[in-house]
Amino acid sequence: MKILFLGAGAVGGYFGGRLIEAGGDVTFQVRAGRAQQLAARGLVIKSPLGDANIRAKTIAQAGGEAFDLVVVACKAYDLGQAIEAVAPHVAKGAVLLPLLNGMRHNDDLRNRFGSDALIGGMCQIEATLSPEGDVLHKSKFARMVFGPFEDFPADVRRQQVLSTLAELGAKASFTSVLQDPVDQALWDKWVMIGTLAGITTLMRGAVGDVLAAREGHELIEEMLHEAIAVATESGYPPRADYLASVRQLLLSPGSTFMASMLRDIERGNPAEADHIIGDMYRRAHDFGHDASLLRIAYCALQTYEARRVRGGLS
């Protein structure tokens, strides 16, 4: 199976690189600067699960080569450009596997390409890129979950892609899970990441910093409750055991756990505000929920973006 990763950042670089190590035929579609980094240094991964320097194949845009699977590993604010970049690959028969947070991108991709071109997926990893372009994996935890959607069962073509990816992932240096259907896993992660991103960007601190505040514990619980309400109204209430693990992550005193969105803000970069927090708030509003913390967090993120765009951060 021929696999294309759209992007070779921390997420695409890690999972794509590990699939190459496992014997996968992987190519990265990247911009010129990233292609130059990969050509000069290789795809460098520094991880508690093992360091690697991998020779990576790259392309700048769609050409004559056809791919069976295209993994979309971009930031949500780049989705519009990503859709145009993958369109020629889909026209040649590729199946799309997005690894973005939230749910709105699945609707956008399905509206553009149809349900038969899409499978669902998400990943869990704490990783970033160094200034040199190395993938810095910060823990031993790395997980990818993928599968068909409940409303759109896999046909023969998508089932073959899923089965082959599962076989390859079983040999890779990350946990690979084929889940049928995949919807609950996507909603579960959104509940966690929506709460984490909402509270850490609003408070401008890690989980432990928020918990050190007088009302920190209560505010985290309130934001988690708002996210749970949206998932439940949508038909995907989180299981009790999953929520126990989420609370362990979000309510650990002294924890330095924070959303990558906060790191983006601290660097003056765009944030995935609309996709992760805004869409969660809009759904809560449509269901008739107050969701006051999501509302405030989204307003704060929009304020940051307006200031960033006008050059007011410096």
From TrEMBL:
The kind of enzyme this is, by top-level EC class, is oxidoreductase
What InterPro entries does the entry give? 6-PGluconate_DH-like_C_sf, 6PGD_dom2, ApbA, KPA_reductase, KPR-Related, KPR_N, NAD(P)-bd_dom_sf
Q: Does the keyword Aminoacyl-tRNA synthetase apply?
A: no
GO cellular component terms, alphabetically, are: cytoplasm
One BP term from GO: pantothenate biosynthetic process
Q: Which PANTHER family match?
A: 2-DEHYDROPANTOATE 2-REDUCTASE, PROBABLE 2-DEHYDROPANTOATE 2-REDUCTASE
Q: Which family would the database say this protein is a member of?
A: Belongs to the ketopantoate reductase family.
For this entry, the protein name equals 2-dehydropantoate 2-reductase
The organism encoding this protein is Dongia mobilis
Q: What is the lineage of its organism?
A: Bacteria, Pseudomonadati, Pseudomonadota, Alphaproteobacteria, Rhodospirillales
